Amino acid sequence: MTSHFFLLSEPLNQERLTWIEETLKFFFVKMKPENLLQHGRAPEEIFTFLISGDALYSLQDPETLAIWEIILSLPSIRIICDRQELDLRGISVERLKMKSPDQVLDHNSLSINGQTSFWKDVAKIGRQHEQPVPSTIGYLQLHSPYMHRSSLYALRCLNAAMEVQASVELYTYLDGVHLGHLGQNPSEFENIGKGLEELNERCTKRGLSCQMLACGRCAAARGYSTWDDGQGVVISTCTIKPFRIRNLNEIIDRFERNHIILGENVASVQFRKETQAGSFSIQEKGKAPPVTILITGFPYGTETAFGALSFAVACAYQGILTRVVFIEDGVYALTGAHRLDQETQFFNLQEVIDAVAGSASLQFYAFQPSLHRRGIMKNRKMTAVLDIGVPELGRILFSPPAGVQAGHQRIIFF
Question: Which helix (H) or strand (E) holds 88?
Answer without folding.
Answer: helix 83-89
